[in-house]
Amino acid sequence: MLIQMNSSWHHQLTDEFEKPYFEKLTTFVEREYATHKCFPQSSQIFAAFNHCSFDNVKVVIIGQDPYHGLGQANGLCFSVNDGVAFPPSLVNIFKEIQTDLGLPIPISGNLERWADQGVLLLNATLTVRESEAGSHQNQGWETFTDAVIQKISESKEKVVFLLWGGFAKKKGAKINRAKHYVLETGHPSPLSANRGLWFGNKHFSKTNAFLKSIGSEEIQW
């Protein structure tokens, strides 16, 4: 597995790449991509890091698994490639932005535009087999992404962490809340949103209000 990652991240995570678990993970991913259809395409596995350098991280959104349908995943959580129909969670994210900020639903579900502004769109697991949700879980990715979150928490200040749903809340348990701004709500999936756990959270306006308060540029959602 070629670690195609922005140099600022490479510098921060060098120790992780040398640990035994990462070597096992690399072997696993290479074997999976050689023998099965997997997503995202190999050049996009670390796309979240390439669109948002370590120095530029202002906001972190934590997802679980890449989309496992053909042509959907592009290496950023909740994001899909241009021209791909919006999955239900993304539809609900855009609906909340529309209500919260009065912005129209965008034409594309490609969230690279967010990442390029400093939003790290981090899945807990960075790869998956086609049509097999969770198929690459418990192989080492979670250990790696825990290290990423910890590194941000320890080395940076005043980052906004958006934790959506139980899984993300658990993943963000070790964030230093004295140094960072942490917002929690339900998951944007229909199951959660239809139970009243997502809509009305105003995470997007709250994020921008906080960024403005610290003299940082707001995100154009």
UniProtKB/TrEMBL annotation:
Its EC number is 3.2.2.27. InterPro entries: UDG_fam1, Ura-DNA_Glyclase_AS, Uracil-DNA_glycosylase-like, Uracil-DNA_glycosylase-like_sf. It holds the Pfam family UDG. Keywords: Cytoplasm, DNA damage, DNA repair, Glycosidase, Hydrolase. The keyword DNA repair applies. It is an enzyme of class 3 (hydrolase). It is found in: Cytoplasm. GO terms for biological process: base-excision repair, AP site formation via deaminated base removal. SUPFAM superfamilies: Uracil-DNA glycosylase-like (SSF52141). One of its GO terms (molecular function) is uracil DNA N-glycosylase activity. The active site is at 65 (proton acceptor). The keyword Ion transport does not apply. Residues 50-211 form the Uracil-DNA glycosylase-like domain. GO terms for cellular component: cytoplasm. It catalyses: Hydrolyzes single-stranded DNA or mismatched double-stranded DNA and polynucleotides, releasing free uracil. Belongs to the uracil-DNA glycosylase (UDG) superfamily. UNG family. Excises uracil residues from the DNA which can arise as a result of misincorporation of dUMP residues by DNA polymerase or due to deamination of cytosine. NCBIfam families: PRK05254.1-1 (NF003588), PRK05254.1-2 (NF003589), PRK05254.1-4 (NF003591), PRK05254.1-5 (NF003592), ung (TIGR00628). HAMAP family: UDG (MF_00148). This is Uracil-DNA glycosylase. It comes from Flavobacterium rivulicola.
